[in-house]
Amino acid sequence: MASTTAPASATHAVLRAEARLFAREPAALFWVMASPTVLLVILGLVPSLREASDDLGGRRVIDVYVPVAVLFALIMAGLQAMPPVLAGYRERGILRRMSATPVRPAALLTAQLVLHAAAALVSSLLVVGVGRVAFGVALPGNLPGYLGALLLAVAVGLALGAAVCALSRTQRIATAVGTAVFFPTMFTAGVWVPVQVMPDTLRRIVEFSPYGAASRALDEAARGGWPGPLALGVMGVWAVALTAVAIRRFRWE
Q: Where are the transmembrane segments (predicted)?
């Protein structure tokens, strides 16, 4: 019993320590937890984006951008916040030194995944709340379907971030690779152009990307339906594939 309790207590200590460090990073807190809501507010202040559009089936652009802002939070957590931290720990030898202690390096990796997942989910809740209160955006019509799609999108986002970290030997490389992947994912998530108004051929291609599929799934659930099996399947395949890459290529030192 004691041998089981000690590692568990050590893991909890790592999680608490990483949470304190994360809370002391104002840049990470802003970009992951605040910037998606700021983006939504800026867009919501544009009068034309609060008007119904025939291209969106009578919906407003601001209605479509709530799921997009949710995905923006996942992109920031998975690609901009987490990979440099983990790569920095590895580059400084922290993971290697932890292997000689009761706390295995995997505890640090788990703590980072939990923290960034929690931050992304809190940010998503803030986006949905502000959208509802400030701009009258309807709450998701199918809440269980929306939550399921959101959790799967979080898994995809963190798997992508873990893969970037696994393929990057240093913190500088992790930042560079994360930034290079950041812009295509922003496009496929619909940050610049909503996926719903893209030309049909381009939209079908985009919806086979991780965030394109996530955008479709969240939008379907927001409108009251169940996320389609194709969108969920695409996200599931990407999550498994990216996780496999991360596990296979990740090195502790």
A: 28-46, 66-86, 107-134, 146-166, 173-193, 226-247
